[in-house]
Amino acid sequence: MEQFFIFVGVLVCLAYLVKCMRFAKCIFLHFWKVSPRSFLQSMGQWAVITGAGDGIGKAYSFELAKHGLNVVLISRTVKKLQAIATEIEQTTGRSVKIVQADFTKDDIYEHIQENLKGLEIGILVNNVGMLPNLLPTYFLDTPDEIQSLIHCNMTSVIKMTQLILKQMESRRKGLILNISSGTALFPWPLYSLYAASKAFMCTFSKALQVEYRAKGIIIQVLTPYGISTPMTKHININIITKSADEFVQESLNYVTNGDENCGCLAHEILAGFLHLIPSWVFYSSACQSFLLNQYTDYLKQNIHTK
Ligand SMILES: NC(=O)c1ccc[n+]([C@@H]2O[C@H](COP(=O)([O-])OP(=O)(O)OC[C@H]3O[C@@H](n4cnc5c(N)ncnc54)[C@H](OP(=O)(O)O)[C@@H]3O)[C@@H](O)[C@H]2O)c1
């Protein structure tokens, strides 16, 4: 019995040590960039970004072009994509290709494949996603967009990975960044469908990383919390809520930092605090009522409808 408790104690200590090491690595990377600037460019000539017309996807498009990659922007609204393409070409001198596609549909992938033919793709950012309710909402009260959400948040990740991973595997090089969410780290009542779709992304991504790590491919899932974008109705930026540009610049420092991270130090710390809350507290009716009332009021006071 005594040995059993010692064994359990050692396991718990080891688990905390691993957590501390991950956290320490994040802090280290926050203050000292370790991957050379040429690292992203060395993955290949082109980066493909889904949901590139605004928010986080737009920020990745600019940042990767600044790192010397040509970019393929995939999104719904051509006008927005054209404007971004012109700006990227003028400011960075990189080539830009735009592809119009609506990821709530599942018949778009041949069209995307056609447009990617012949490109040496080094980076894929599976960024597109939809959030059916920004304010905490019961499942039955959320907009009935279930199939669209499944296609946009899940099918897109699988199909885009399938299209591009093959090429990366034969070149034995590549980086896939999957933009999940902090809500994926444990079940989130009042965002149940969105959080579950993002948890799928984490599971898929981490399993895939194990399969393809030895083939030279980095697959990383990012689990950020609040970022000010159209999805979050341009919520006010503060010490926790990041701008898309800020988040993306920081997250690119961490691409070699394991198969999952929050993408920025502030969210890594927030995740650490949330993990400290016992689940019986988090899932208590008092906490859910706090989310429905005080948190909803906070969101309403801090969002902007542009
Ligand atoms: N913002 C946050 O706080 C936050 C936090 C954690 C995780 N995330 C995740 O990060 C990703 C990007 O979020 P975001 O806040 O940047 O999103 P966003 O502001 O809603 O959208 C950015 C872009 O995605 C495009 N898009 C949306 N639905 C699409 C569809 N069905 N087909 C094609 N393109 C579509 C939009 O197209 P149009 O240009 O046509 O509008 C827009 O260009 C999402 O997966 C989200 O779940 C966001």
TrEMBL record:
Q: Which GO terms describe its biological process?
A: androgen biosynthetic process
Q: Tell me where in or outside the cell this protein is found.
A: Endoplasmic reticulum
Record-level Gene Ontology MF annotations: estradiol 17-beta-dehydrogenase [NAD(P)+] activity; testosterone dehydrogenase (NADP+) activity
Q: What class of enzyme is it?
A: oxidoreductase
* One Pfam family, short name: adh_short
Q: Note the PROSITE patterns from the entry.
A: ADH_SHORT (PS00061)
- GO CC terms, sorted: endoplasmic reticulum membrane
Recite the UniProt keywords alphabetically. Lipid biosynthesis, Lipid metabolism, Oxidoreductase, Steroid biosynthesis
Cite the EC number. 1.1.1.62
Q: Which family does it belong to?
A: Belongs to the short-chain dehydrogenases/reductases (SDR) family. 17-beta-HSD 3 subfamily.
Protein name per its UniProtKB record: 17beta-estradiol 17-dehydrogenase
- Organism this protein belongs to: Loxodonta africana (African elephant)
Q: What is the lineage of its organism?
A: Eukaryota, Metazoa, Chordata, Craniata, Vertebrata
Gene giving rise to this polypeptide:
HSD17B3
